[in-house]
Amino acid sequence: MIRAVLADDQTLVRAGFRSILDGEDDIEVVGEAADGAEAVFRAGELRPDVVLMDIRMPGLDGLEATRRICTDPRLPAVKVIILTTFDVDDHVYAALRAGASGFLVKDTEPTELIHAVRVVARGDALLAPAITRRLIAEFAARSERPAPSPGLEALTDRERQVLVQVARGLSNDEIAERLVLSPATAKTHVSRIMSKLGARDRAQLVVLAYESALIAPGWLT
Questions:
Q1: What's the Cα-to-Cα distance from 123 to each of 35, 58, 118, rounded to whole Å?
Q2: CA 171 to CA 168: how far, in whole Å?
Q3: Per-residue pLDDT for 167 more than 60?
Q4: pLDDT at residue 208 in the model
Q5: Is-contact 32 13, C-beta < 8 A?
Q6: What pTM value is reported for the model?
Q7: Are strands 50-54 and 102-105 parallel, antiparallel or unpaired?
Q8: Which of residues 149 and 45 earns the better pLDDT score?
Q9: Among 25, 36, 80, 93, which residue has the least CB neighbours within 10 Å?
Q10: pLDDT over threshold 50, residue 166
Q11: Contact (Cβ atoms closer than 8 angstroms) between residue 202 and residue 169
Q12: What DSSP line would sit under the chain, residue for residue?
C-alpha cells in the first residue's frame, strides 16, 4: 500500500485529490496539511511514501517545506511531488534542486496523478514528461557560469556517459540498450552516480547534469 500525504491550502483541491487516490486499491491518503509547516510535521509524524506538495501556501511555502523534508536524515524514503498551477516556474526548479522527485500541474488528468504517485513511490523520478526536462534546461541555462558539481570529477567515463543518458530522461533499460549494457549494470551505475553526487533520485541527477554543463539544453529530445 502506497501511503500519501496531501499538502495544499485549498480544501477542495485536497478533497478532489483524496477522492481520486483513495479510489485506488494500492494507494491510501493517510494525512493532509493546509500549509508547509503542517506538511513537514505530517511527513515526520506519518512517514508517508509520497507527499503531494503545493508550491504556494501561506506561512511556510511548499519550496521550504520540500527542502526541510528532503534534507531530514530521518526521512530518506519520503518522496515529494510538487503541485503547481504553472508548468514553467522557477519555484518548481528550486524544489527539484532541493530534492523533489518531480512535479505535476494541478489540472493534470486523474490517471496521470495516479501514475505519478506510483512512479515516485517505487523510487523513480517523475521525468517522463518532456516538460520536466525542459523546465530544468531552461532555468539551468540561465546560470552565467555553470560550474561542475562537487563529486563530478569522481565519476568514471562510463558513469559520465550514463549520467548524460539519465539527464535525457532515459530509463535504466533504455540506457542499457543505448550503451550496450545489461539493465542490471545500468542500474548499478545510476546508484553509484547518485551516491557519489549525493543525489536523492534521478531528478536531482538531471539538475546536476545541466547545471554542470555536462549536457546542454539543446541536446533535449
A1: 25, 29, 9
A2: 9
A3: yes
A4: 83
A5: no
A6: 0.76
A7: unpaired
A8: 45
A9: 25
A10: yes
A11: no
A12: -EEEEEE-S-HHHHHHHHHHHHTSTTEEEEEEESSHHHHHHHHHHH--SEEEEES--SSS-HHHHHHHHHT-TT-TT-EEEEEES-SS-HHHHHHHHHT--EEEETT--HHHHHHHHHHHHTT--S--SHHHHHHHHHHHTT-SS--PPTTGGGS-HHHHHHHHHHHTT--HHHHHHHHT--HHHHHHHHHHHHHHHT-SSHHHHHHHHHHTTSS-GGG--
pLDDT in tens, 170-204: 888 999 999 999 999 999 999 999 999 888 888 88
Which residues partner with 103 through β-bridges? 82
Question: 68 and 61 in contact (C-beta within 8 Å)?
Answer: no
Query: Helices 62-70 and 90-98 sit at what angle, rounded to 10 degrees?
Result: 10
- Give the Cβ contact number of residue 175 at 10 Å: 23
Q: Measured between alpha carbons, how far is 202 from 191 in angstroms, rounded to an integer?
A: 9
- Cell digits for 153? 570529477
Spatial distance between the Cα atoms of 204 and 220, rounded to a whole number of angstroms = 17
Instruction: Count CB neighbours of 170 within 10 A.
Output: 20
How far is Cα 185 from Cα 175, in angstroms, rounded to an integer?
Answer: 10
Q: How high is the pLDDT of residue 219?
A: 43
The residues that bridge with 5 in the sheet, in sequence order, are 31, 51
